[in-house]
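Following the same procedure, sequence and fold were stored together, as reproduced here:

>
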Amino acid sequence: METTNKPLEKLNIFSFKGVQMRTFHLTWMAFFLCFFGWFGLAPLMTVVKTDLGLTKGQIGNIIIASVAATVVARIAIGKLCDTWGPRKTYAALMGICSIPVMTVGLVHSYEGFLLFRLAIGVIGASFVITQYHTSVMFDKKIVGTANAVAGGWGNLGGGITNMVMPLVFAGFVGMGYLPESAWRIAMVIPGVFLFVFAFVYYRFTKDTPAGNFEDLEIANPKAVKAKGTLAIAMKDPRTWGLFLAYGACFGIEITFDNVAALYFFENFETSLATAGILAGAFGFMNIFARAVGGIVADKVGNKYGMIGKGKLLALLLACEGIGIALFAQSGSIVAAVVTMLCFAMFLKMANGVTYAIVPFINQKAIGSVSGIVGAGGNVGAVLAGFLFKSSEITYSQAFMYIGVAIACIAAVVALINFDKTRSVVTEGALEPAEA
């Protein structure tokens, strides 16, 4: 029995009771698996590099490809959430994207690998569905925290994959497979999990606390679906402010997920397993850091309103930029790890604060706003990827340029008035995003 068909006003992470909490747990688990499949290849790139004979420029193209397709995918998926519903959208995305994840091992050329990396990148749009689904399941008083916890625990997949995939690879090598075969077989595992979970998500979640879109449409055709949501989202300057901010935080997070293991391996001559553990520590902070950002944002919002949330976001971005610049100058592995953990805290908190603001931009266009802002994260990753592709600058120099760019974006975000409120009345289920 469902206890209520309204958005919850409290987040009890130990509860699976009711469609809201069941959806909360399944959506972060789905995002975790999507992230695992998305970046499963990242910690194995040293092996793939040798197997396929990749150059630094080609690796840079692969890094860009892994996040480029997500830009368009996130905007499209955001629109689908508004019209088709998050339940069917998530199930379809996981089912379809599990195929390139499972079959990437079939390629034997740089060109083929690049195309598969591009296809796998589409799964990064899963984040938009996760944030949409938690936004409609929780009350506006707690939605920032719910979004941040779900997003953070899902992002944890990026850290866990850096730790687990080298061990999976080593396991297959231990079974007698050659390295050039082991990495290919290893990728089948996250693909199978994604395929199975697509059915789980479809079976055990609902689009809203009140029911699925198709059921609500029968009762009231205007209750859920809204026309022109993408145009509404695009006309609001606050959407683009968050687009920039998310590019500066999440965009750099997924870039770091892609290059961290390789950076530690080559700059500090660590073993592949050690490089994976150090890179995994960065992602592992999502278990609490993004949630802290959402919790703080909700408290600041309750006391100082949307202006307070905006200033908090700007401050965190500034601290992140400074931290990355210091990381770039680290001369020892100890200094690199310490500065990495510091800027990671600010970065992941900024992620949480960004999506504590998103549900309040426009109630009728939650999916489209979420999609555009999410796409901003990948645009940031694509631009950063070009720095790591360049043969004229080192990875350390690339991190320094990124730190300066983030500080500039922080200044822009500080000037945006996020308190501008649209008066929107929506019938039915999408209650929590009222500003």
User: Anything to note?
Assistant: The longest helix spans residues 289-328.
